[in-house]
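[Discussion] Sanity-checking designs against the backbone

I'm trying to build intuition for which residues belong where. Below is a structure token string of 141 positions. I'd appreciate it if someone posts a full sequence so I can compare it with mine line by line.
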């Protein structure tokens, strides 16, 4: 019988969450930590840039619309750093707006796009996929 990865395969996965809304940061953190992931949640693009190197995330989850620098600004800065330093941080854009432009977020450098109020299993599946790990809702804890 082939071996499949269990939910524990998500243990230790480092996720950087960037959202100006504290309740959204807390919700995402609780969902991801309940699946064994290590989460650093910050409220701004500037804070994300400050923790990027020391935290060394496996995946970025970033709100598109934030005061000051937007998620678009942040991902462009990260992609510029990667062009100079190498490496690649898989990233998903998150939004509360149904009509947010997926094409624009993709062109800016996000690989995925997820609604802030998606089901917890959708969050975990998306993060696992971006990190190259497997997860199915039937493995939900």
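Best answer:
Here's mine. Compare freely.
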């Amino acid at each position: 019988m082939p071996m499949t990865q269990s939910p524990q395969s998500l243990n230790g996965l480092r996720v950087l969450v960037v959202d100006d809304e504290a309740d959204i940061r807390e919700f995402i953190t609780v969902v991801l930590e309940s699946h064994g992931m290590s989460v650093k949640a910050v409220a701004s693009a500037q804070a994300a840039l400050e923790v990027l190197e020391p935290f060394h995330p496996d995946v970025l989850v970033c709100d598109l619309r934030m005061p000051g620098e937007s998620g678009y600004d942040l991902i462009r800065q990260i992609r510029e750093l990667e062009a100079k330093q190498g490496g690649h941080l898989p990233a998903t854009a998150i939004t509360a707006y149904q009509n947010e432009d997926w094409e624009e977020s993709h062109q800016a450098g996000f690989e995925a796009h997820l609604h802030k109020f998606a089901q917890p299993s959708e969050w975990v599946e998306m993060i696992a996929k971006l990190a190259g790990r497997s997860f199915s809702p039937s493995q939900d804890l």
